[in-house]
Amino acid sequence: MNYLVAVIPERLKAEEAYAALQRANLGVESIEILGRGFKSADQCGLIDPAERAWRQIRWMLVWLLPFGFSAGFLFNRITGLDTFTWAGRWGNQWLGGGLGAIAAAMGGFFIGGGVGLLVGSGKALSYRRCLNQGEFLIVVRGTDPLIRQATTILRQFRPTTLQGYDHSE
């Protein structure tokens, strides 16, 4: 299934674009309009990228922390390193486990999407942000020919952004 998302700043233009898509017989079930007075982002299933990243980070931490702790603990036990002489043999093993868990937490954060949260992407567009600013989204779902036809129609209304997605799952 392919998607086309157009961001239109004005309600009247968004309604005109929606009506033009309907007149082209693209199918009412394949066209949605999001914004104030229409469907919300949650009703459409539009997920906030930051929320998705934090969920991925938490999921990775659940799996990586125990492995990181175990790896650090076992590495210290096998090698017999006495890095912290004041801690003794067991203390060094537990500290090794703690350092392994810290390394795992860093890996879970960076690999899970933390860099995108901190740095962000200039090209990535948060559609939720557009909706919060009072703009409207027109979402068209369908086959390649339907998306091409919708793209031609929507370009006439000069959307702020016109983005296509291929959802092959």
Topology:
Blueprint lengths: L1 E7 L2 H13 L7 E4 L6 H4 L4 H31 L8 H32 L7 H6 L3 E7 L1 H12 L5 E6 L3
Helix pairs in contact: 3-4
Percent of residues in β-strands: 5-15%
Q: Report the CATH C-level class of the largest domain.
A: Alpha Beta
CATH topology of the largest domain: Alpha-Beta Plaits
Order of helices and strands: EHEHHHHEHE
- Tell me about the largest β-sheet: 4 strands, antiparallel
Number of domains: 2
Poorly predicted ranges: none
Query: What's the rounded overall pLDDT mean?
Result: 83
Q: Which class of secondary structure composition applies to the elements?
A: alpha+beta
The name of the CATH architecture of the largest domain is 2-Layer Sandwich
What is the radius of gyration? 25 Å
Q: Which sequence of strands runs across the widest sheet?
A: 2-3-1-4
Anisotropy-based shape: rod-shaped
Helix content: 55-70%
